[in-house]
Write a structure and sequence with these properties.
321 residues; mainly alpha; D-Maltodextrin-Binding Protein, domain 2; 2 domains; two-stranded antiparallel sheet; 13 helices; 4 strands; 4% strand; globular; ABC transporter substrate-binding protein
Length: 321
């Protein structure tokens, strides 16, 4: 298949290699409870123990496979450095045969976007077949902080809890009826001054003048009210295909004490940055996978045992909550 013609088609394109790594994680048996806690999942041999999967054999096998794709030119060769604008320009020229992205019709228009079809989870070499690239429905549990100066903490919690209800979600994502949205055939729809703003203003800019959810999502994202590309028809169709392959439990981001956060912001960050740096090098070929043992030893020396103690404690707290 060569939609661009003349052999110019790039089999896979994207803005970040992480999208492909996370999408394939379920085919190799890693990241088995979602991506919210970096490099962490549940030990398949012990349901009470967390695992640092970025040093496992399964993770290495996945990097070997992706490196093979990259080495054979099946992945955008500039994927480690490509700018957002260049990616959009390439996609608009029909250069990509596949991508992991938001609804293509919403982004590239019907002529280009309607050519794409969604796929379900792929079965990996060891029989793993799940879709693990799925964040918790509670986007970020750290968006609300109650300080000692708050004189009405109970009322504040009730206010935040409201945005997890249908009524609160409609207010958060759609605004006020008659001002930002109206009911049509039983569904909340943005009013014309948002859908078709005057002048050079974009749809997103019109929303941002009225609502706060762009770039600052709180509560639960509900398809009935959230108007991003994720709720577009193609996206909903894709979600139906992957639903049978989604793990039973997707973890939210764990919460940590002040002392735990000090370690996570220092040595924890060093480990995360090193894992990401070496992931890219292993895939691109800048580092040979024959040095895998050195990679693992480096992570261990950076404080992996202490990191896992913190994560285990956080996971235990999560289970008890």
């Amino acid at each position: 298949m060569d939609p661009a013609g003349g052999g110019k088609t790039i089999p896979y394109g994207g803005t970040h290699i992480q999208e492909l790594v996370q999408w394939l994680s379920g085919s190799f048996g890693v990241m088995n409870h979602g991506p919210s806690n970096a490099n962490l999942d549940l030990d398949p041999n012990d349901n009470n123990k967390v695992r640092f999967y970025a040093t496992t054999d399964e993770y290495r096998q996945m990097l070997e496979f992706i490196h093979k794709l990259y080495d054979e030119g099946l992945i955008e060769q500039s994927i480690f450095s490509i700018e957002w604008g260049q990616f959009l320009a390439n996609a608009s020229e029909n250069l990509y045969a596949s991508m992991i992205f938001y609804d293509p019709i919403e982004l590239f228009g019907d002529e280009i976007g309607s050519q794409y079809n969604s796929v379900a989870a792929l079965e990996g070499p060891q029989g793993h077949q799940s879709y693990n690239k799925l964040s918790s429905s509670v986007w970020d549990p750290a968006n609300l902080v109650l300080t000692s100066e708050n004189k009405n903490p109970e009322a504040t919690v009730r206010w935040m809890d409201h945005f997890y209800s249908d009524e609160g979600a409609k207010l958060y994502y759609m605004g006020v009826e008659g001002e930002t949205f109206e009911e049509k055939d039983g569904k909340a729809v943005y009013m014309d001054h948002i859908l078709n703003p005057e002048g050079d203003m974009t749809f997103e800019q019109a929303i941002a003048k009225q609502l706060t959810w762009l770039g600052s999502i709180s509560g639960i994202i509900k398809a009935d009210f959230f108007q991003g590309g994720e709720s577009a028809p193609q996206s909903m169709e894709a979600a139906e295909k992957i639903e049978p392959f989604v793990p039973d439990e997707i973890w939210p981001r764990f919460t940590f004490t002040a002392d735990e956060n000090k370690f996570l912001q220092s040595k924890g960050q060093d480990i995360a940055k090193y894992v990401e740096e070496m992931r890219d090098k292993f895939i691109s070929g800048d580092a040979d996978l024959s040095t895998w043992d050195e990679y693992v030893e480096t992570i261990e020396k950076q404080g992996l045992d202490e990191l896992m103690e913190i994560y285990q404690t956080a996971y235990d707290r999560y289970k008890e909550s």
